[in-house]
Specification:
There is one protein chain. The chain is globular. It starts with a helix and ends in a 15-residue tail after the last strand. The protein is mainly alpha-helical and 199 residues long. Helix 7 crosses helix 9 and helix 10 runs antiparallel to helix 11. The chain contains eleven helices and two strands, in the order αααααααααβααβ. It has a two-stranded antiparallel ribbon. It has a domain of 134 residues. Helix content is 59%, strand content 2%.
Amino acid sequence: MRRFAVILVAVIVAVAPGAAQDFPSLGPLAPLPPPFDFWLSSLRAEAAARGIRPEIIEQAFAGVEPVEQILERDRAQAEFTLDLGTYLSRRLTRRTLRTAQAMYASHRTLLHRIGEQYKVSPRILVAVWGLESNFGRFAGVRPTIPTLTTLAYDERRGAMFRNELFSALEILNRGDIALDQMKGSWAGALGQPQFMPSS
């Protein structure tokens, strides 16, 4: 029992205030994000300051709430969860390669015209088209504004998606597409090549 008491005293002395200086400080905690309604109100004000028409702002943000499924998809992207070999074996199947060859042959004239205009190899165009939307079969069905709003509110890559959200609002503001037709991937990518709105 006496031996136990000696050990206990030694432990208490070791963790006394003087010994605590050996431990690194934790530093300040990251601030919590503002409540969504407050954040969205600020976003609306910034959109107005950027020249987005009031009716576009109202339509775009009517009833918008963060979508949890979007955040789940963001954290489970195959590009980040699979090793390169597994990813390529799943994405570059024989069927995909045959379809790419057929699409290249079928659209050769258009692909070369686009390639010359934008200085991008037609083969790269076909590769992007195939991998991003399976040659237009899966261009996305998610409404873009709620998707980008969710990702802009999220702290992880909020600044990047905030810029994409403003680019999407500008597309709507110009009248390039109607709000109900602006749909894409879980990350806000649009169309058959799955470009982000800023592109």
